Amino acid sequence: MLKILIPTMMMIPMIWLSPPQWLWFYTTISSLTIASTSLTFLLIPLETMMMINKYMGLDQISSPLLTLTCWLLPMMILASQHHLKNNPFNRQQAYISMLTILQVTLIMAFSSTELILFYIAFETTLIPTLIIITRWGNQTERLNAGTYFLFYTLAGSLPLLIALLFLYNSANSLSINFMYTSPQTTNKILWLGCLTAFLIKMPLYGTHLWLPKAHVEAPVAGSMILAAVLLKLGGYGLIRIMFMFPSSTELSYPFIIMALWGILMTSLICIRQTDLKSLIAYSSVSHMGLVVAATLIQTPWSLTGAVILMISHGMVSSALFCLANMNYERTHSRTMLLTRGLQATIPLMATWWLLLNLFNMALPPTPNLLGELMIMTALFNWSPWTIIITGLGTILTATYTLHMFLMTQQGQLPKHLKCISPTFTREHCLLMMHLLPMILLMMKPELLS
Q1: By the 8 A CB rule, do 286 and 397 touch?
Q2: What is the pTM of this model?
Q3: What is the mean pLDDT of the chain?
Q4: Residue ranges covered by each domain of the chain
Q5: Mind telling me which InterPro entries this protein's record contains (predicted)?
Q6: 3-state SS class at 115
Q7: In the beta sheet, which residues pair with residue 57?
Q8: Cβ neighbours of residue 35 under 8 Å, at least 6 residues apart?
Q9: What is the pLDDT of residue 173?
Q10: pLDDT digits (tens, 9 = 90+) for 386-416
Q11: Which of 122, 94, 91, 90 is nearest to 106 (CA)?
Q12: Which residues pair with 114 in a beta bridge?
């Protein structure tokens, strides 16, 4: 564990001591090395929690999410190079430092076995994310988005803190391992308090209003980390907390219904979106609805499906945000009507769009399909009526994904886009780094399950 935590912390002095011409090269290489080292976490033996020290441990749920977090840092650095090339050098250093600090807090959140340490790390992720959105966002609307993001998350987290203090008072410990073996808590209000923070972070439909705003206004790395890791932090917390309240299954019915309803609603919202980033953001809410429903019914099959879908969705939505940003850098617009027919000028980029849209639709044999099928099977066993909503959700997902592809790639090329810059090797490398792990996971899905 420390073999990735300490090198990640040591990147911060390296960023501030690097000469200007080598900054991006050094940080990319260092973060890639850390990401490669983190792949060893996927080989943890089943059903055990590998304790690193008294407060930190890894198991089958946290290790894939931890690897995803580490894998994302070099990709965010690659994606942000063009966006920041006109910024003063010290602002470039500050930006990469924020991403590195965010990675340190996320590593601590995913590996902590003490709930109060998890809470502190969970809250600390707010600060660098907020700075990235409000300082490096494109539009003036970013301050509004930052306020939404901060207040939604803080309002949800306060009940969690109070609930954790009550739990500590009754059990004298907040260690996850101890909580699993101690007498189970049946207090319904404590259950609700613990749940709220994670449902807002996921986000559950109804508490999702901060997400499209934050995604649309954030710079590319902000959108990537939000979609790929910060939403998964909510799912991870949900899985961890639900184990402590096994008797409260009937209480979760309204939340399951809300999550399933959210799949339909957000898919319908996606179909009539004009803004490309907003469409991808709403599709995240739709996918996370499945994860919320799967986590709340708490069967081994559904939890496996939830972890697989979280990882694969993290990779795919992050790649889609990269593509949306590449379009934005060339056309200076996120409106889909103004960026039509790009296949004619940059055909290689259209290939990436097609591949990633097929992954987003959960076409076989993608890991997305494996996760969604496991969740749908578990939901169907729990209640046969859910097949109507999940089936409709799948059809609508295919509809808005194809709509997004056709709108941006096909059609008549507008006059103002006749001469746009070709694609760079850096961009192909970045998209390959998103897609390669997904293709490899198809060969060996048991790394996640």
Answers
A1: yes
A2: 0.96
A3: 93
A4: 251-449
A5: NADH4_N, NADH_Q_OxRdtase_chainM/4, NADH_UbQ_OxRdtase, ND/Mrp_TM
A6: helix
A7: 51
A8: 67, 70, 71, 73, 74
A9: 86
A10: 999 999 999 999 999 999 999 999 988 888 8
A11: 122
A12: 175
Read off the tokens for 447: 């790394």
Q: Report how far apart, in Å, the C-alpha atoms of 346 and of each of 80, 204, 324, 326, 330 are.
A: 20, 37, 14, 11, 11
Q: For residues 91 and 183, give the distance between their C-alpha atoms in angstroms, rounded to a whole number.
A: 51
Q: Which amino acid is at 343?
A: Q
Token code pair at residue 156: 């949800």
Give the pair of three-digit tokens for residue 270: 């996606």
C-alpha to C-alpha distance for 59 and 52, rounded to whole angstroms = 11
Tokens of 22: 């080598």
Q: 225 with 136: CB under 8 angstroms?
A: no
From its phi and psi, is residue 45 left (phi > 0), alpha (psi between -120 and 50) or beta? Answer: beta
Which residue reads 């924020």 in tokens?
98
User: Is residue 203 within 8 Å of residue 234, measured between CB atoms?
Assistant: yes
- Burial string for 29-50 (b: 16+ CB within 10 Å, else e) reads ebbbebbeebeebeebeeeebb
Q: What is the C-alpha separation between 291 and 283, in angstroms, rounded?
A: 13
Cα distance between the two ends of the chain:
21
Q: What angle do CA 94, 95, 96 make, to 5 degrees?
A: 95
Total Cβ atoms within 10 A of residue 428 = 14
Q: What angle do CA 290, 295, 301 make, to 5 degrees?
A: 90
Beta carbons of 286 and 227 less than 8 angstroms apart: no
CA distance 372 to 257: 17
| pLDDT tens-place string over residues 132-182 | 999 999 888 999 999 999 999 999 999 999 999 998 998 888 888 888 777
Q: Residue 338 in contact with residue 301, Cβ under 8 Å?
A: no
Tokens of 181: 């073996």
